[in-house]
Amino acid sequence: MSCPRCGGSQSERLVRARRPIVIGLYATGFLLVYTLTGALLHDLAEGVQRSLLPMWKLWVPVAVLVLAVALTIFRERQQVCDACNRPRPAWLWVPLDRVRSAEILAGSTTRRLFLRGLGAVGASLATAVGGLAAAVGRNKGWLPVANDFFMTEVEKTSPHPRAEWGEARVKSYRRLGRTNAMVSDISLGSGQINDVSVARKAIERGITYFDTAPDYSDTASEKVLGEAMKGQRDTIFLATKFCVADGHLPNDTPVPKIMEAVEASLRRLQTDHVDLIHIHSCDRVERLMAPNIHEAFDRLKQQGKVRFLGVSTHTPNLEEVANTAIDSGRFDVMMMAYHFGMWPSFGHILQKAKEHDVGIVAMKTLKGAKHTNLAQFRDEANVYSQAAFRWVLSNPAVSCLVISISTHQQIDEYLYASGTAPHAQDVALLERYDQLTAGDYCQPHCGVCLDSCAYQLPINDVLRYRMYFKDYGWQKEGMRLYAKLGTNASACIGCAAPCAHTCPIGVPIQDKMLDAHRFLTFPV
């Protein structure tokens, strides 16, 4: 075959893969990890049905990186022009046959191949790790959410129950927005319930709002509540989620499949309808307004199987999701994370919901109540849980709060706060707790301080690592993560501290950074 450029004769030779092609593959692999794998991580964090996660978003970048490694290690046998010494055009770069085994097995060639292999694997790992770090960075808003709501060990009940809590009952019922339902101010969340008698006692004590989901305890929560409600279904306002056992239904789930999932919930709950169904843990407007989900809801409502539509959100994009839900006019209820000291500038969302007659269900009301810090409040006249509940319910925009209840003691302790206004000592306890944890608790979705640092110090990460060291007992992990930071808090020594007054909850940033540096730096 003659050369397509100069017409000269061609012979087969072993040549290295074209360097621009290999570099292009590494760059493509990095971008695919950032875009595709980053999107996959978001789906995973949001709780999308695990069996339907698009795993090709992981395997495609891996395949590209593996190809880059292979082309770096191996040489190709190509047609090369004897006259102009140039291989075939780039679009014909694919090897014409395999590399001769004798050449690979030759000593010097083997050594070069081995060294090239090490370099290729190293380059691929560096690309993959860098891309994964960038993909995680795309979802960095989830990190404080995960820490605040999922990783923090909270104290759910007092270690010393009091006699006066016994037989406590619901003392107040509130209107749940335009549903017009009157629901107990303290309501039952069933994420960890496994005892039918606990749910039955909750009904006996006046709780009328039950919150559940198919992915709570692999559908066991719905089954427990179904048993508990027998003969008393009409007294309960029942809420569940658009879910299956292994997660939330994706946006493009066919309408019949969505309806089948809800009908499966009805069978487990032993009822012919649920009062409220949520789009659960929603972080994206496109999921909030997914046409298939809304069409399924409308059909189910026409059939009398659901009554009202809601959304639950405690995610990085909470404010946009909440505003869109209210403005759409489609949502009757919003279940939102809300506790003392959280989002001090968030009151306008609650007020807007009230003005549009959208019911607000508060959740995550105990988050931040770490065991180590609450140990200093054991002798208080009021326990942290009751103080926290009274504060949340003091906001007239809140219709009720949902708290996970799985024991008889929790019913006694929690319902003791029902229908009572916050006392001065309640607020003092909560304020003292916040003062104690100032700097350990970095509120989610904030980041106000970050742009003020001339050294681009990740202040929120430093505070989290300090918390790992001081509060969780994870000293080695805190120090390990801190050591990996490109810029650490040593930059704060002698700094003019432009960050000093940027924190909306008054964290003394420079002092906490220097304190963190003392604890987290490996001794020399």
Protein architecture, described:
The chain has 524 residues and is α/β, with parallel strands linked by helices. Helix content is 44%, strand content 12%. The protein has helices at 19-46, 56-73, 101-105, 107-138, 142-151, 196-204, 220-228, 255-269, 285-288, 291-302, 318-328, 347-355, 371-374, 384-393, 408-415, 424-437, 459-470, 475-483, 509-520; strands at 10-15, 76-81, 173-175, 182-184, 186-189, 209-211, 237-241, 243-244, 247-248, 274-279, 306-313, 333-337, 359-363, 400-404. The strands form four sheets. Strands 5-6-7-10-11-12-13-14 form an eight-stranded parallel beta barrel, surrounded by five helices. Strand 5, helix 6 (196-204) and strand 6 (209-211) form a beta-alpha-beta unit. The chain is globular and about 95 Å long. The N and C termini lie far apart (68 Å).
Ordered list of secondary-structure elements with their pairings:
Blueprint: E1 10-15, H1 19-46, H2 56-73, E2 76-81, H3 101-105, H4 107-138, H5 142-151, E3 173-175, E4 182-184, E5 186-189, H6 196-204, E6 209-211, H7 220-228, E7 237-241, E8 243-244, E9 247-248, H8 255-269, E10 274-279, H9 285-288, H10 291-302, E11 306-313, H11 318-328, E12 333-337, H12 347-355, E13 359-363, H13 371-374, H14 384-393, E14 400-404, H15 408-415, H16 424-437, H17 459-470, H18 475-483, H19 509-520
Parallel strand pairs: 5-6, 5-14, 6-7, 7-10, 10-11, 11-12, 12-13, 13-14
Antiparallel strand pairs: 1-2, 3-4, 8-9
